[in-house]
Amino acid sequence: MTYAWKAAGLTYNRYLAVAARVVRRSLKEEPRLAAERRGQMDLRFAKWTNGKMGEPQNVADANAKAYAEKASS
């Protein structure tokens, strides 16, 4: 037996993200806003050079910057 999310070509993590978004959108205004804030992620990374940590950067901002640089070249 195959799962519906697998048959649709989704990974399990993507399936969970879609299900969570549907549940958040079905809530009333106040609980929905609180749930949407909890659903936001802030992932950061830092490059290490010669044993020293560089400036921490937000992954979403770094990706946007990389796409803009790639598009301009």
TrEMBL record:
Full protein name: Mitochondrial ATP synthase epsilon chain-domain-containing protein
Gene Ontology biological process: proton motive force-driven mitochondrial ATP synthesis
SUPFAM superfamilies, alphabetized: Epsilon subunit of mitochondrial F1F0-ATP synthase
Recorded family membership: Belongs to the eukaryotic ATPase epsilon family.
Gene Ontology molecular functions: proton-transporting ATP synthase activity, rotational mechanism
Matches recorded under CDD domains: F1-ATPase_epsilon
Name of one Pfam family that matches: ATP-synt_Eps
InterPro entries in UniProt: ATP_synth_F1_esu_mt, ATP_synth_F1_esu_sf_mt
GO cellular component, one term: proton-transporting ATP synthase complex
